[in-house]
Amino acid sequence: MRIEIDPSALGKTRWYEFAVRFLFGGLITAVAGIIAKKFGPGVGGLFLAFPATFPASATLIEKHEKQKKERAGLHGSARGRKAASVDAAGAAIGSLALVAFALLVKRFLPAHSAWLVLTGSTGIWLAVSLSARARWPVGCAAPGNLQPASHCTSLPAPVPLP
Q: Residue 93's pLDDT is what?
């Protein structure tokens, strides 16, 4: 699966879908703030790391894929679930990278320049994201193909880690 940016998708998204994402993100952030106030910033930060817009995005992705199939006269439930699972796999890979980012910031920020630590940690975040994506590919190279990577002939085998 190639990663692409498609600005035309913004025009296909309804205003209320943006509102749902905003609402989910705001609620999760507010809950994290309440938890931080009660139990301290360390505990609250763990909850703030929750991918705030993921629940809304996953349900909207499933809905859109299902609707596309139904417009073609097909039953789209399985397709919608597969599309949401590919999105979840991407979120999991991103979470691994965020853990690496957070650990580096926690370790080096107290003793080093903030801009240097944040720049280096961002570079590590990118490297971990790309490495994890290469190691555990999701989907196939063809746009819209949601077959598991093990069923793809167009992708190379996962790269073994040392």
A: 83
